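Input chain follows. Return structure tokens only.
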Amino acid sequence: QVQLVESGGGLVQAGGSLRLSCTASERTFSSAVMGWFRQAPGKEREFVARISRLFGRTFYADSVKGRFTISRDNAKNTVYLQMNSLKPEDTAVYYCAASQEYSVNYSQYDGWGQGTQVTVSS
């Protein structure tokens, strides 16, 4: 059983925008927190953004604050990541996952999907 599926990645020029989607199972989406992470070749998986289930409270990595927006549609069991003003350093595979903790550590998240590739050209 697939717990969640990421989509919406692609190739975009620097300064452009993409919207990523993550559709999760009912059980996965019921977790306290849904988060977005990214991983580039040779680098550790890093936190991007999270959003809570109860009140939709958001938190962002400093590297994306002001450019990315995380949101959720509870009726669709879907979390989104709107990415604006993209930079080449945003290039990575983007993953979503669930946690019972308000964490920025990927080891505290579960239910990882296959990821969606985001490539930003200069």
